[in-house]
Here is the input.
Amino acid sequence: QVQLGESGGGLVQAGGSLRLSCAALGDTGSSYRMGWSRQAPGKEREFVANINRSGSSTGYIDSVKGRFTISRDNAKKTVYLQMNSLKPDDTAVYYCNAVNTNGVNYWGKGTLVTVSS
Here is the structure.
C-alpha cells in the first residue's frame, strides 16, 4: 500500500505560478506511475498530467500543455506539478494518484488551488 500527501496549493492571481508536491509513504519507490487530476466545483474529476516510472515519459491534458510540467524525484518519493501562467479555469482541488504494476490506483486527499482574476 501507499499513502499520498499533496501540498503546495493556495491562492494565486491569474498569470502566477504554483508548484504542487505529492509525497508518497509506505510501499513506494519507482514502481508506481504517478499523476495529477483535478476537480473544479460542480464538475467531474479530470486527468491533468501523468509520468511514467522512470520519469522519461509524460502526458498532459490539452488545456495545460505548455503551462504545466510534471516531474518526479524517485529518491525523495515525490512527484511535482509546476503550474505557470495560471488561469481562473485552473481553480480546482488537485489530487495526486499512484498506479502500481498491478493497476491498483491510490489517491491523495487533494490540495486546493484558487486562481483569482
In short: Residues 13 and 116 are 5 Å apart (CA to CA). The radius of gyration is 13 Å. The chain is about 0% helix and 55% strand. The chain has a mean pLDDT of 94.
